[in-house]
Every structure is written in structure tokens, then in C-alpha cells.
């Protein structure tokens, strides 16, 4: 194996695999870059059992380019706000700001229960500003216009998004006479990166940040490129079983050789229950790899329905299917039954659609083609994935062909700190929590040790992708309850110190 | 007095009065905004007695928009570099980076002797990158193209300039294998603001900053709007004499009433020796006010030739002329003889030109019309200038009419910290020197007290605009020698601490 088609899926997955918005890069221009849409077919924005939170939806006119003065139209940024529990300006009531990431902000609000639960305890206002170019916060009036070409997408960058947050919160505080109210930032995944970066770049605006599952070091060669897929593989080996890991590891060659046979693609289409005939084994590779990666990110200890409804400890369930199939079950059928835990846990799917809009422009893919260049490889020796060596050139080619844009792979490190990020934080920063669960494949690109007394790492061995930000449930294990309690204590410390400083200003 | 025409000069001077690049805002659209060019008629880039420093001139291709991905052409940024004294990568030789401000970088290099004198002592590399849109660092290939309209000027902002420095130094360090070499920032005036902001925004890139005469607080209402002109006035009252101050204070009414007479402008033209006939008293008001403000900024203790050749303690000399004129000398003649110290110290000027290109687009005026909105008023009671109340609306109108751009008066505070700047620095920052001389009218907008143990203010009572950055001379007073010695000690401390941290990494 390890021929081109086999490898493609890996880079397909590699560029970005945030929970909500996997971006995919093709190995070469011969391969379509498949672009799962945010909240597309394979995920749902809402389900009946989700807690609902109360908020007001508002809009704010933002400059499209904060760092330049071209005559660009302003755009309406949506934000959700709840002041029900807020202590108000005179009591310096805190403002909890969630850094909206790559998707509809209502979805993040619904899936970030932790913030809503904290608000009454801290008498805090809660605000969820949406990230530009996502949800309703579309420049040029509509998604279609905003996503038209590289020129209209140009201002979809992390720095502009941070400036949006900064301008919005500054104006809002003025309007509410709340200038003295401390702002605490929250964010998960890319939103966690934004929260940490915002604390670094706008210390005058926010007193601290909880950055959950934020792979701020997943750039250039700051962490080994194999990290992500090694963690996914470890999860299957340890949470599942060695047999499960080996079965998956062996499956690629089997698929590859089936695909090469006459009518092999028909056979694979039928085995895996796709609605339409597979066009290449790569599509199947992508489909499987996505499932494994998402299963690792969403390997929560209780049933959840974030991207997809899944049982608690879903990797264990997948591996039970794979390991406990009756004698004689083929390797492909076992794999299929395994990933059905991810793709068809409710048992209601009659056949599976592959992404049907391979040319659709997704916002995250644009970001991955510009700033968010996160190199990833996979090791054939260590991981359960086929070998792949990161190849910047082919990604660049893909981005030029598909978005007419050339990535700047070193820019994020220059702007926010790359190899020197931790040193700079240590010397210059304070009040950041980097929380990570080690089951989460993104944890390898985050900060996993305390950097200073006030920049701390909270690591849970059995946590997955920003589990701590979700609402509490009766099924929460003790370690999760403890993690959240520590976060609450740290946030309380930040606030107490802030209030002490403010008071000392009055009394001296 | 205090009619519109009388007032115009004040706001004319007010928007920006950096030493090198006065920007001028009109009181109303009726008044031309006069735009002295950088290194125009009234200043010189070079003179025979200037020390010359050795450097290599290099160019670096920069992205025009670091924060967005429009398909804009790259531009060539010029930088001057000297590695003669550099200890090199293995010895972690320091890199001293001067943050180029609004003008030709060779001129700043020639007038920043302090850096050149420090280089051998610290075995440092010296690098002077030019600010985009100034000198040779022109986007779109030429000054003419770069300054064509608001669209081509759009990327002339402080944040883009900081990103230029960040990208340049990062690339340069990689090319020299000098990643471990500490960078120390230097800058004066607007360049000092850039140095302080860069230390705040890019702590992973520079270990400290000497921000000389940097009015980082001269925005919105952080300092009283009258500060600048009050300090100019204090200088004339204290360094000159009460009579001198009063004579200038009384002169505006006299000019005003002369101007109203038939042929009054001809009389004024003759009295002040202009080559061409004055078109309004405003032109004369501007001409005089500029002189007073520059005299205050350049009130150095020894003869210098920065913008203009001047004697040591020039305000004292101006006031001697004004105070010691023979009995019967008219107030206008006294004023004229006074400002001749500024405009004609060499005695070689036969007649004076007013700026003859009032519509010329200057880079600083663009910056003043976009981000660098520094409100200024003058108090009729306290100052020697006519009363003027800052009027944002008229400035905005002027900017829209002349540049087709709308200022963002609160943006700099949002981006870099406004009222919360000092608090943020205290909690989050380190290793910045704010040096100021209290004769400098810009000192009122700078940081004049220690913010923390490592963010310190060095104030000299008799210093003027970034005097400390100039080369040492035999005439340096003790307090200047001491100020520079303290700066050297602090920079040495930053470096020692950096080396200690690096060493501890190796030994643990």
C-alpha cells in the first residue's frame, strides 16, 4: 500500500480537524478536496434533548478591515447576550465573553453550557459574539457574496475576528457604562486559540482566558507532525483494544486491493452502504478516517449529541463491534459495523451520503489555506493510519487552484508566537487556563504544562475535545467535576485580584 | 479675536506635531489644510557636520496586508543593517532594532546616534527598517502610485508597520541562524510608540523597548486636550520669560487686526519677509505656531540641526530677541525677530516660503486622518495661543473631503489600550522604558511615572523631544549623561535576564 490514493485521505484529514469543521486538503490536484459543510448532512445543529438557554440576539456594525482603511462596506456581526444575572456596572459585574469560532454562534451557545451555568454564580453577563464569515455574520450581505472569491474572503482571518471582539466589547461597555467591569474570555478548539491569543494581544480588554482544547502550538514544527494521528491511534489501542487497532490498521490494504479489482468499487459501495457509487477508494478512506478522528475528539464518558449522537465512551463501543463480530465476519464488515456507531448510532440511516458538494467553499478551508496551516503527518509504524508525510507544496498548490490564495504558513507563529510562545507567555503573560483532555487528538498541539503561576495547564487523562465547556450532567465523572471546580476557582481568583486592584485605586 | 480664522491655526497644528512630520487639520472645510512635506523646504535631511554611520542597505519583500489575503502586490521594504560589532548567533549577540517612523529611514539612522554608540558596547547588530509608505519603502512601486488615493493608502497603518517589523526580524533571524539572539526595540516619537506597542503586542519577538518621547496616551480624552500647547507655553514662560510669553500671547490680536485692514496682508507679508503675498492671516498663524511648537520640541541644551539648525536653548534665544529689542520695536517685529531664530538662524534666508503644496498628500496626514487621531485644544487662559476647542466633526469632514476616508478616533485605544493602557502594562507587561524630557510638549501624552519594576519612566526636567536618542556630544549636560547611563543599565539588565533564562534552560 502507501500509494498515492491511499495517502490522500490522510492529508485530507490533516489540515484541520476541529470538531465542528473539518477542513480537508488533497494530496495533489488530482484529488478533490472534500469539504464537509458546517452542520451539514452528517451533523445536526440541534436536537430535542439539548438544553436551551435564554438570550437576546443583537447586531453590531463592524469594520470589515480593522487594520486598513479601504472603502469596504461594514458588516453586521451577530451576538447573543444575557444580562439576567449580571450584577451591573456599579458592582463591577463580570462579563463572560465566548470567542465565537468557525460556525453558527447559536450552536456554540447551545453547546457551551459551562458558561451559562457560571453566569448566576458570578453574577456575570454572558455574551457570545459570532465569528465573522460564519452564521449570520456575513460581510457583503450574504454568504454567497461573502464566499464569492479570494477578494471577498480576504478579511476572514483570526486577527480581524479578535479585533471584532475587541471593538464590540469596548463599545458595549461604553454603552452600558460598564468600563470597570472585568471581561473573562472563554473558547474551545479554534475558539480557545482565539481566547488565549486575545488575552495575549488585548490584555487591556480581558483579565483572563479559559482556552479549552486549543492547539496553539499545532503550527510549523513546534510539535511533531504525527501527534494528532498518533493520539487517535492510541485512543483506539487503549480505550478500545489492540485487536481493534490492528483491524483498522490492516483494513486500508484490504480496501485498497478491493478497490483495484473489477467492480471493486461497487463491492465497497455495497459493503459500506453508500447511497451512490464510490468514485474512488479515497472517498471511503476519507469517510473512515473522519469517523475515527471524530470518535477520538468526541470520546466523552457519557452519551452526547454534538456533531452526531453517540454513546458514552464511543471508541469502546466501536471496538466492541469490531472485536465481537461473529467468527467469519470479514474485516470490511467489521470496520463498517464499527463506524456505524459514529455514522448511524440511532439506526435510522438507510444509506450513507458522502459529502455531495466537494467544491463548496467552507470558511475553515479558507482559513486553513491562508493562516491556519497546521502540518500533519501519520506514521505507518506507530499509528493505525497509512503513512503520510506532510507536503506543504501540494497544499499550497491546492489552495492556489481552489481559492486562488497562497498560504502564509509561518504567519501565525510570527503574529502570536511560535517556538517562543511559551517563553513569551511566561515572561509577559498571566491568567490563562489551557485545559485539555488527553484523549483529544488536538491535545498534542496545546499547552500541557504549567507555564507560570497564573498560566496553568489543566489536563485530564480521560477527557476529550473541550468537554469542560459542556453543561454539567448527572453522569459527569469525578475528574470532570474537579476540573470544572478548579477552573471556577481560578476564574474567581482573577476576579478577586482585579477587584482588589480596583479597590486599592479607590482607597489610595 | 477668537474668530474662526484665528482659531484655525491651532487645530492646524493640533492633529499631529511630531518633530519630523507635522500634520495639519483645518478648522473647517473653508481652510486649506496645509501639509508641510517631510524634509521639505523648511527642513533638511542632511548637513555637513552630521556624523555618518556605516551600514548596508537591503530590501525585503513584504506582504502589503498582513491581516488579510487580498491579492495585493508585495512591496519592497528598505532596511539598514550593520553587523560589524555583532557577537553573532552562537554568542547570542543582541539585535538592536529601531522602529522606523514617518520618514526616510536614512535620516532617522543619521539622527539616532545613541544606537550606533551602543552597538560596540553590547556587541549588537543594528537594524533600521523603514516604515511602509515612507522613504523608499513604497507600495505599488512609487510614491506617486502609493499615495494615489484612499485605496492605495489603505494599508498605511501602525499595525501593518509593526507586522512588517515582526516578519522582517523573524525571517532575518532564521536566515542568520540567530533565533536565540535577543531583540531590543528603540524608537522616538511615533517610532517610540511603535516600540512600546511592539513590546506589548509581540513579546515573543522583542525582550524590551526604549520608547523615547512616545505620546502613547495622546488619544481620546486620556490626557487633557490642552496639554500640548500648555507645555509649549510653559516653556516660553519658564525657559524664556514672562514678557516673552505675554508678547507672543498678545501678538495674535495684533496680527488679526492688521489683517483686517486694507492692505493689511501686504503689510504682514513685508514685516515677516515672505516671498509671496500672504493669502490669509491663518497662513501666518500656522507659520508662527509651528515655529513655537518646534522650538519647544527642539529646545536642546546645545546647538543642533535636526529639522533646522538652531542654537542651544533656542527658546531662551528667541525670547532674548523678543525681550531685548530696542525701545519702540513693534510687537510684530519682535515676534519676527524671535522666530527668525528658528526659520533663519544661519541668516542666509532672503525671504520665507510658506508651504507651497497645500494639497500634497503626506503620509502622516493620512495617518492622522485614519488612526492617529490626537485631540488637542488650547486654553486662552493658560496658554500663549488663541483659544481652541477640539472639534472632531470638522476634522472628520476635512479627512473625508481630502482623503475620502473617515477617521476611527477610538481604534488606537481599542487596539493598544487607552484608559486601561497603564493597568494592562502593569499586570501584563515588562521591560519598557518611557523616556521623556519635560520641555517636550509631547511629554504630556506619554507615560511619566513608573508602572512597575520593569516598566519605568525616565524623566528629565530639561530634556526635549527624544534628546536621549541623539549621539553624545561634548556639550551633553550631566543629567543627559546620567539618563543615557540608566538606559544602558536597564537594557543590560534585560539582556542579562534573558541570557540567564536561556542558560538555565541548558543546565536543567
From TrEMBL, chains A, B:
GO terms for molecular function: carboxypeptidase activity; dipeptidyl-peptidase activity; serine-type exopeptidase activity. Residues 1-25 form the signal peptide. InterPro entries: AB_hydrolase_fold (IPR029058), Peptidase_S28 (IPR008758), Ser_carbopepase_S28_SKS (IPR042269). It comes from the Eukaryota. The keyword Hydrolase applies. GO terms for biological process: proteolysis. Pfam families: Peptidase_S28 (PF05577). Gene3D superfamilies: alpha/beta hydrolase (3.40.50.1820), Serine carboxypeptidase S28, SKS domain (1.20.120.980). Keywords: Carboxypeptidase, Glycoprotein, Hydrolase, Protease, Signal. One of its GO terms (cellular component) is vacuole. The keyword Secreted does not apply. Belongs to the peptidase S28 family. This is Serine carboxypeptidase S28 family protein.
Amino acid at each position: 500500500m502507501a500509494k498515492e490514493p491511499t495517502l490522500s485521505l490522510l492529508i485530507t484529514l490533516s489540515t484541520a480537524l476541529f470538531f465542528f469543521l473539518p477542513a480537508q486538503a488533497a494530496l495533489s490536484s488530482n484529488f478533490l478536496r472534500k469539504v464537509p459543510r458546517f452542520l451539514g448532512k452528517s451533523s445536526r445543529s440541534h436536537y430535542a434533548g439539548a438544553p436551551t438557554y435564554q438570550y437576546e440576539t443583537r447586531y453590531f456594525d463592524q469594520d470589515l478591515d480593522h487594520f486598513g482603511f479601504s472603502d469596504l462596506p461594514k458588516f453586521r456581526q451577530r451576538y447573543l447576550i444575557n444580562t439576567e444575572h449580571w450584577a451591573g456596572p456599579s458592582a463591577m459585574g463580570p462579563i463572560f465573553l465566548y470567542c465565537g469560532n468557525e460556525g453558527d454562534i447559536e450552536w456554540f451557545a447551545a453547546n457551551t453550557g459551562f458558561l451559562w451555568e457560571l453566569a448566576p454564580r458570578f453574577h456575570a453577563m454572558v455574551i457570545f459574539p459570532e465569528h465573522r464569515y460564519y452564521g449570520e455574520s456575513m460581510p457583503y450581505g450574504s454568504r454567497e457574496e461573502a464566499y464569492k472569491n479570494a477578494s471577498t474572503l480576504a478579511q476572514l482571518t483570526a486577527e480581524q475576528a479578535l479585533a471584532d471582539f475587541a471593538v464590540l466589547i469596548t463599545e458595549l461597555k461604553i454603552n452600558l457604562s460598564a468600563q470597570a467591569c472585568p471581561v473573562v474570555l472563554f473558547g474551545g478548539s479554534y475558539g480557545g486559540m482565539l481566547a488565549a491569543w486575545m488575552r495575549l494581544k488585548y490584555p487591556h480588554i480581558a483579565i483572563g482566558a479559559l482556552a479549552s482544547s486549543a492547539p496553539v502550538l499545532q503550527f510549523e514544527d513546534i510539535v511533531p507532525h504525527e501527534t494528532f494521528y498518533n493520539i487517535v491511534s492510541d485512543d483506539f489501542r487503549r480505550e478500545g483494544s489492540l485487536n481493534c487497532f490492528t483491524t483498522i490498521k490492516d483494513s486500508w490494504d484490504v480496501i485498497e486491493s478491493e478497490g483495484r479489482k473489477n467492480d471493486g468499487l461497487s463491492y465497497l459501495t455495497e459493503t459500506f452502504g453508500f447511497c451512490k457509487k464510490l468514485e474512488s477508494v479515497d472517498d471511503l478512506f476519507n469517510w473512515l478516517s473522519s469517523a475515527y478522528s471524530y470518535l477520538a475528539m468526541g470520546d466523552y464518558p457519557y452519551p452526547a449529541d454534538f456533531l452526531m449522537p453517540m454513546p458514552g465512551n464511543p471508541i469502546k463501543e466501536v471496538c466492541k463491534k469490531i472485536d465481537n463480530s461473529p467468527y467469519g465476519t470479514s474485516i470490511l464488515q467489521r470496520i463498517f459495523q464499527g463506524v456505524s456507531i459514529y455514522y448511524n448510532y440511532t439506526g435510522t440511516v438507510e444509506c450513507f451520503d458522502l459529502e455531495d458538494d466537494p467544491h463548496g467553499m467552507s470558511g475553515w478551508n479558507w482559513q486553513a489555506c491562508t493562516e491556519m496551516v497546521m502540518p500533519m503527518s501519520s506514521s505507518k509504524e506507530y499509528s493505525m493510519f497509512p503513512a503520510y508525510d506532510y507536503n506543504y507544496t501540494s497544499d499550497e498548490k491546492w489552495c492556489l487552484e481552489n481559492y486562488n490564495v497562497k498560504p502564509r504558513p509561518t504567519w501565525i507563529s510570527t503574529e502570536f508566537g511560535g517556538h517562543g510562545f511559551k517563553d513569551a507567555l511566561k515572561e509577559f503573560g498571566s491568567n490563562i487556563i489551557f485545559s485539555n483532555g488527553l484523549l483529544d487528538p488536538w491535545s498534542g498541539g496545546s499547552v500541557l504544562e504549567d507555564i507560570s503561576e497564573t498560566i496553568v495547564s489543566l489536563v485530564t487523562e480521560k477527557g476529550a475535545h473541550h468537554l469542560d465547556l459542556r453543561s454539567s450532567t448527572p453522569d459527569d465523572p469525578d475528574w470532570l467535576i474537579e476540573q470544572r471546580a478548579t477552573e471556577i476557582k481560578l476564574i474567581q481568583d482573577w476576579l478577586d485580584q482585579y477587584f482588589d486592584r480596583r479597590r486599592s485605586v479607590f482607597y489610595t
